[in-house]
Amino acid sequence: MSRLEAGGPKEHDGPVLRVAGLTKSFIVHAHGDLALPVLRDVALAVSPGECLALVGPSGAGKSTLLRSLYGNYRTDAGSIRVRHDDAWTELVGAEPRTVLDVRRRTMGFVSQFLRVIPRVATVDVVAEPLLRLGADPGEARDRAEFLLALLNIPQRLWALPPATFSGGEQQRVNIARSLIVDYPILLLDEPTASLDANNRDRVVELISQRRDAGSALVGIFHDTGVRELLANRVFEVSP
Amino acid sequence: MKPLLSARGLTKRFGARVACRDAAFDLWPGEVLGIVGESGSGKTTLLNCLAGRLTPEAGSVTYDSAAYGAVDVHDLSEARRRLLSRTEWGFVNQDAREGLRMGVSAGANIGERLMAVGARHYGDIRRTASDWLSRVEIERDRLDDRPTTYSGGMRQRLQIARNLVSEPRLVFMDEPTGGLDVSVQARILDLLRSLVGSLHLSAVLVTHDLGVARLLTHRLMVMQGGAVVEDGLTDQVLDDPQHAYTQMLVASILPV
Predict the structure, then answer these.
(1) Which residues of B touch A71 (CB under 8 A)?
(2) Same domain, B188 and B241
């Protein structure tokens, strides 16, 4: 697949994602401003072709870290820098439009759950991220159909909105949507959580292809078999 | 790149009550900004100040006009501001009756906007109006009917067509799906979402519905008691709210 649509690093050696001093607490105002510290002084770096697995007990802050990297959670201190348009872009404290531009072209996120958009057909849900980059509608649709077929979504479902699909089907639609753009950095939150063995293998194969093609991956993989197949390093997140 | 719309220190009082206090932000081309908060929080007042419909006691609104360059919205003559609001802006009211001319046909409602931006050929205007009716999912054979014969959802879609037909650069929307049945709401949200994307619109959207905000906006400003208490990327404000008031709003959403 052409890397033409995606921004970010082309001829860059070394890390494309650098995190330093990342600190994050949740303050719950309804409970007397209760402070829940989650991340303290996290530092990591990921290079193209690497897959870093976040490990640690439940509640250690793995998901919080992943969501912070994507700008979905606001961090209290520290730095998250990504290679974007061949330069370093700081995401902590960045303007919304900067974060959105990084998300459009450089950094993708595969979550466990699909946020369904009412009335939009599955094939259009999947094609949308590519269309936003200005791709030809026909080509975006072809690519979406290719990915849906690859992920075993029956063709009769492609024209329907995914709202009524099973959990596993929705997750595969979500994976197709997240992989339709060839992002230089990909964040993965339990990408195989509700999949059967056959579909899990298919997803693992797709993700390892991205890694081998030079994407930098950070993921949470509860399934140790999946983690061993994908990750070449682990990062211990401690509470 | 320059901001399309810049507000600085906007303050509006109604008698002794401050409806909007010291609001400031930049809206960039292609951005959809949501203003959320409960009834009485000042969000509609702020929207009306931005669009020049209300005059603030203090502060300024600068708009980067395609025709005139940077203009102070509240320094413009009434005639100039009206022209701007017919050519470069759109305004979608919650109540479609306020945004439509109820006494003339649907086609005339859409055609009037086209004439404001210079269209003169009757056949072209009629064809474009008909195309837009179908784009907002209204049967083309309703072109000559008055909006009085339309349902609430159809009127709202007609109002959207009237506002977007002239391809404005900036659209203000005040609760565009308020007061409509949920099935009608979903249809209008889907329509707005695809139109905003395909026309590369910039928009300021007022809503009390956080689901609508999540679906349509890139950024949010949360208002309480006339003040902006929190702002940021939409998913970040909704998934990791910082201010006590935003946390309360997010926690109050009923799960389905």
Answers:
(1) 233, 236
(2) yes
Contact between A30 and B187 using a beta-carbon 8 Å cutoff: no
In chain B, pLDDT over 70 holds for what percent of residues?
100
Based on the fold, state whether residues B81 and B185 are members of the same structural domain.
Answer: yes
Q: Give the total number of structural domains in chain B.
A: 2
Which of B167, B199, B216 is at the close of a domain? B167
Q: Please indicate if any CB of chain A lies within 8 Å of the CB of B187.
A: yes
pLDDT digits (tens, 9 = 90+) for B231-243: 999 999 999 999 9
ipTM of model: 0.91
**pTM metric for this prediction:** 0.92
Which residues span the domain enclosing B106?
Answer: 100-167
In a domain? residue B250: yes
Indicate whether A129 pLDDT > 70. Answer: yes
Query: Do B2 and B76 lie in a common domain?
Result: yes
Last residue of a domain, one of B135, B167, B199: B167
- Sorted by where each starts, the structural domains of chain A and their CATH numbers stand as 46-72+96-236 (3.40.50.300)
CA torsion, ordered B40, B41, B47, B50, to nearest 10 deg = 120
Q: Are B5 and B169 in contact (CB under 8 A)?
A: no
Answer whether residue B95 is part of any domain: no
- Indicate if B82 and B178 belong to the same structural domain: yes
CA distance B33 to chain A (A): 10
Q: List CB contacts (< 8 A) between B187 and chain A.
A: 119
- Beta strands (DSSP E) in chain A are 17-28, 34-46, 51-55, 77-84, 87-90, 107-110, 185-189, 216-220, 233-236
Is residue B130 located within the same domain as residue B191?
A: no
